Structure formats: structure tokens, C-alpha cells
Structure prediction request, 178 residues.
Amino acid sequence: MAKTHNMVIVSPILERDENHGSTIWNTAVIIGHNGNIIGKTRKNHIPRVGDFNESTYYMESQLGHPVFQTKYGKIAVNICYGRHHVLNWMAYGLNGAEIVFNPSATVGSLSEPMWSIEARNASIANNYFVGSVNRVGTELFPSPFTSGDGKPAHKDLGEFYGSSYVSAPDASRTPVII
Prediction:
């Protein structure tokens, strides 16, 4: 698809690393405009907040803050929860990023008040563009679960609220794109 449409694709995936004890990583693969795999990056910060205690199945990245040269510029990917950490954003800027993508799957009760400002602030502070992409909808699980926080068991994490947008270093941003 990247080659057919002459575009770069940032594709979040679940990566199972069989060479390191079946470690599971929250990974994004960067596919170049000619269909080649340019590289991959992994989630740097793992949330341990209520039902988002991902430390039970993901590991933190050991790849640092890579920046990838593409036909359209130098890009980086700050996966999901990494947006809450200002030094994460800064490291991508110091490594030369011109555009940082932030693919996320977050629900209103956890972060919606921060969503509209975190990436925009990072864009201003680090002089690069940010593409903030959040999942939409609700995922239902077959069995109820709890994270041991005293709340009743439930079958979903809540509503993924979307609200994707692009922000610029001059403090401007696009309207919400879904």
C-alpha cells in the first residue's frame, strides 16, 4: 500500500520477540514510500494506572528514541502513554525529529482532559509537528476483569474517544479528525 500510494505508513503492532523469552512489545513499524521497512520503535513508558496496568504483559523499550529518515522528513513515534512524559518528547526533538506521531488507545476517564494540550505543548516546546491519533469505539472482552483497584469487575475499559489532530510549532492545530 505504501508503494502504491507513494506514502509512509506508521503501523502500530503487537510484537512477540521469540528470541528474548516471548517478550511482548507495543511496537510501531515504519514503512517507507517504496514499501520497504525503514525501522521500528517500541513504547518507552508502560502505564501502571488502574486497568491500564500494562506491565503485566508489555516491557519498556530498550531502543531509545529513534528518528527515521523518510522521503517526507525525519519522523519519530511516541507510542501512547509516552505522551505524558515531557523528556520523551524532548528526546525525539534532540534526535532530529521533524514530525512525531503519537498513536494512542486511551479512554476518557484516564486522559481526555490532557489529550488536547499534551502534544500541542510538545510541538511548541520542541519545534516539530505532532500527529496525535487516538482509537475510537469500545472493546468488549468475553470475561469481566479488574485490576485489583477495588472497583467492580467489568468487560470494557471505557469509550475510546478519538479526537485525532495535528499540531504545529506555531501553536496552531487542525480541527479534530474523528
Notes: The first strand starts at residue 9 and ends at 17. The chain has a mean pLDDT of 91. The radius of gyration is 17 Å. The chain is about 20% helix and 30% strand.
